[in-house]
Amino acid sequence: MNELLKLLENDARLTPEALAMMLDKEVGDIRTMIDEYERDGVIVGYHTMIDWDKTDREYVTAMIEIKITPQRGRGYDHIAQKIYNYPEVETLYLMSGGFDLAVFIKGRTMREVAYFVAQKLATLEDVVSTATHFVLRKYKDNNVVYGAAPVDERGNEF
Amino acid sequence: MDYEKILSRTAQEIKPSGIRKFFDLIGSMNDVIALTVGQPDFVTPWHIRVSAIESLERGNTYYTSNSGTPELRAEISSYMKRRFDLSYDPASEIIVTVGGSEAIDLAMRALVNPGDEVIVPQPSFVCYGPIASLAGGVPIVLETKEEDCFKLTPAALKAALTPKTKLLVLPYPNNPTGAILTGEELEGIAEVLRGTDVMVLSDEIYAELTYGRDHVSIASLPGMRERTVVASGFSKSYAMTGWRLGYTLAPAEVTKQMLKIHQYAIMCAPTASQFAAVEAMKNGDADIEMMRAEYNRRRRYLVGGLRGMGIECFQPEGAFYAWPNISKFGMPSEAFCQKLLYEGGVVIVPGTAFGECGEGFARISYAYSVEHIAKALDRIEKFISKLS
Question: Is residue B315 less than 8 Å (CB to CB) from chain A?
Answer without folding.
Answer: no
